[in-house]
Specification:
One of its GO terms (molecular function) is L-malate dehydrogenase (NAD+) activity. The chain has about 350 residues and is of the alpha/beta class. Helices cover about 45% and strands about 15% of the residues. The chain binds 1,4-dihydronicotinamide adenine dinucleotide and oxaloacetate ion.
Amino acid sequence: MRPAAAAATARAQAQELGAQPTAAPSSGYAVAVLGASGGIGQPLSLLLKLTPGVRELRLYDVAPTAGVAADLSHIATPARVSAHSGPDALADALYGADLVVIPAGVPRKPGMTRDDLFNINAGIVRTLVEGVARFCPRAWLAIISNPVNSTVPIAAEVLKRAGAFNPGRLFGVTTLDVLRANTFAAEVLGLDPEAVSVPVIGGHAGATILPVLSAASPPVQLPDDRARALMARIQDAGTEVVKAKAGAGSATLSMAAAAARFAASCLRAMGGDSNVVECAYVASSLVSGLPYFASPLRLGPAGIAEFLPLPPMNGVERENLEAMRGELDASIKKGVDFVANPPARK
Ligand SMILES: NC(=O)C1=CN([C@@H]2O[C@H](COP(=O)(O)OP(=O)(O)OC[C@H]3O[C@@H](n4cnc5c(N)ncnc54)[C@H](O)[C@@H]3O)[C@@H](O)[C@H]2O)C=CC1
Ligand SMILES: O=C([O-])CC(=O)C(=O)O
């Protein structure tokens, strides 16, 4: 399909997805963080307390949240902070929320892959998304918990079963891959990272993370071996942090910054800003043929407003795109199968 025709089809599809805009209260939006006491949850909550447009910040975790909430509530910004701990408090945390961000779950230790987290995190995400379906079915949902390539399909299947699935409002957060790509490319080019923009497509694990360096702005023109090394560093960046933390978890502070940027983009789009573009991992076969894929999206008041065409790729990048398909497909099927044939609940 020609890019213009693909974009028009994508707009039509997005309009179907996003039935109605999220109601826009004049005083801002209610944001719930599930996993708010954790390594990501705490700094993310801090950044959200400082984010314009947040009217209510609801902190939920199975661990206590009262301390974090009390601490944040002293910061002089309009967001009202509330604490919700334990499964009985999930309803209050979620009821009527506009945006739900989920960093709940266990992080990697050295030697583990993100997929090694599946057995624990799949059930956590399923339970939390069941709550979203029940208490705030119109919310935008941003999933951070790994393995993102599988947890987003799990969320989608749970929402479908509850009749609450809106593919235009379900996102796997891949913003950290974009921040890393921008940072590392800027280092190589000797530029300010804020002036560099690299689209990152695919998924969020190893070879499924595909930074399209040849389509970066400004252009990243490097000899093949240096481009390969830069790509490998971006793909392995999560593992770089896991190794450096030596058993104390994975990226938390940079992830909080990435999720806060993504959340702020969602809130701006909900509020009517028509110029919000982010890469995220979403349920659509439009751009790649796979049922879930990360690609640049224009966000609008109702969720995804437009699937932007995939950036132009050079030969190596196209090969990498083809090479990742098997892994991504298997991770998606694993998530779908978890909901279709669930193991006994503990
Ligand atoms: N998408 C991405 O780019 C990234 C994803 N991650 C993932 O984010 C997740 C969280 O990482 P960290 O914050 O470092 O872990 P952490 O262990 O520091 O925090 C996780 C929090 O989740 C809570 N939690 C566990 N089960 C829960 C449940 N059923 N309901 C509510 N809360 C629950 C824990 O009590 C804890 O406070 C991990 O799965 C990690 O792999 C981490 C970095 C980047
Ligand atoms: O590497 C991990 O396990 C955490 C993560 O997803 C990242 O930092 O990109």
